[in-house]
Amino acid sequence: CLLCTNCIKNCQNDSPNFSIIMPGKEILDKNRFSIFESYFIIALFGLAFLLSENGTQLVRLLTKNLSLSWPLLRTSDFIISILFFTGIFTLFAIICSKILKIKFRTVAKEIGYIYLPLAFFIMFFTITFGYLRSLLPFDENTIMRFKYFFLALGGIWSIFLIKKFSLTKSKSIDNNIAKGVLVLFALFILLLWSGVIISDPLKIVPKTD
Prior knowledge:
By secondary structure, the chain is mainly alpha-helical. The chain has nine helices and no strands. It has helices at residues 6-10, 25-28, 35-50, 53-63, 70-100, 104-111, 116-131, 140-164, 173-197. The longest helix has 31 residues, at 70-100.
């Protein structure tokens, strides 16, 4: 939409209108879902992972013994990182499809969108505080608090969508179990970023000279 409002001017039935809707309503309505877009959303976690220093250091543990040129090394970083997150997502989608007894493609096409708020806020603070840090009047501790805030905001929003999202038409125990599996994936992302990527309080990332 270009917000030209021509649809309002030309409609003879007074159908178009501007209104306030609940954030994420288009996700809950499952408007034009695509399995490619669903996987693209998950791939954003892999991209954000690599845009962090700690994420890159962890991926390099797998390729440290390989003599790769810089372009090949960076390419392998992206491939490994994106495959890691999409692979875990695929595993969770398979588990959900088995629980709900529906096709894997149907599950994978829909559930990726649930994590869009979380992916958005992670990408937001990764790019904002990564590339614009020198222009911002904040010290490292303040920036870290901002990152945790946006991470929590995205996580709460995604978990809220999981609660409201309809995986099947029936409200069965299996449906609730599948939603629990989806929450586990969200918690995995939250724990990874809060425990390793943002500040590495657990000292998981090896220090380099």
